[in-house]
Write a structure and sequence with these properties.
Blueprint: E1 6-12, E2 16-25, H1 30-41, E3 47-58, H2 60-75, E4 79-83, H3 87-96, E5 103-105
Parallel strand pairs: 2-3, 3-4, 4-5
Antiparallel strand pairs: 1-2
Length: 110
Amino acid sequence: MDRAELSIAVNRTGDEAVLRLAGEIDMLTAAQLSTVVNEVLADPPPRIVLDLAGVTFCDSQGLGTLVVLSRKASHMQCVLMLSNVGDFLLRVLDITGLRSALMIRNETAP
């Protein structure tokens, strides 16, 4: 079985940092996501957007990490927003009751 991989590309503008994620958010990659978001929060923009269009899998560790990062951003007066959340992840968020704990903005990419 291949090891899960997650690539994160950061694009920072004046009022927003967009992190484009591709791969899996799970127990093997959640720490990597936390590290990147914490680096952005060292000098927090008003908004951090996690673009999940390329995310193919998210386990309970990944879900927990998203919630923890959202709360941490909030404490830093920063909004953590999820965008391009796939149907599978929306269903998981609904089932777990976490959808209301996260800010989600779905839009079609230009």
